[in-house]
Design a protein that fits this description.
single chain, alpha+beta, Archease, Possible Chaperone, Chain: A, domain 1, six-stranded antiparallel sheet, Archease, metal ion binding
Length: about 210
């Protein structure tokens, strides 16, 4: 676990960002203080970037196009005042990649992010569900410390539940990025990664 530390972001952020109860992240004060940005009941499908979402079994889905065919990138999981996502893939690395893309898409919308920089991420855990939570928590840490937003990711899951990844994206630019969903934490509640019927599936809930 990282010790508390004061780090200034390398991007210019809105004045009100921050949380007075979280001294290690003062620059998030305003974003969390704005109910219009944080309350799910004021976000149509959680943010405007999901305007192309369609109804699917178990919730709304954001699609991606590949080879002329549209397939589900992730499904939204309703959970009281929180929000989560569910992803599926043929390979374990694919579900971790989709979970990361869903994480960023719900937050700010992938369409608004450009690839300008990259970040290397390494995490490890004792189990797959823990690895999923640690992976997304590291992405949240990058956003909170640097304002870094991902657009594309490459993930490799190694034996003994180690994950290495490269995240491509850019620091947050308030003139172009509308942060519509603010995560307080990635939770272990209902977090799961499993293999069934020839595919991997993963689910995670975010505390907002």
């Amino acid at each position: 676990m990282r010790p508390p530390r004061e780090v200034k972001p390398n991007v210019t952020l809105p004045h009100c960002w921050g949380d007075p109860h979280k001294p290690t992240r003062p620059w998030l004060r305003s974003l969390r203080a704005k109910p219009s940005l944080c309350a799910l009941d004021r976000l149509p499908l959680y943010h405007e970037g999901l305007r192309h979402a369609k109804a699917m079994e178990g919730g709304a889905s954001k699609g991606e196009r590949k080879g002329g065919m549209e397939r589900a990138l992730y499904e939204i999981v309703d959970h009281t005042a929180d929000v989560g996502l569910r992803v599926h893939g043929r390979h374990l690395s694919e579900v971790f990649e989709k979970a990361a893309l869903g994480f960023y898409d719900l937050m700010v919308g992938l369409d608004s992010v450009e690839i300008r920089q990259s970040r290397e991420v390494r995490v490890e855990a004792q189990a797959l569900d823990e690895l999923l939570v640690q992976w997304l928590s590291e992405l949240l840490y990058l956003f909170e410390i640097e304002g870094f937003l991902g657009k594309a990711v490459q993930v490799a899951v190694h034996p003994s539940w180690r994950l290495t990844a490269t995240v491509h994206g850019e620091p947050l630019d308030p003139t172009r990025h509308r942060v519509a969903l603010v995560y307080k934490a990635v939770t272990y509640h209902t977090a799961a990664v499993h293999f069934a019927d020839g595919q991997w599936s993963a689910q995670v809930i975010f505390d907002v």
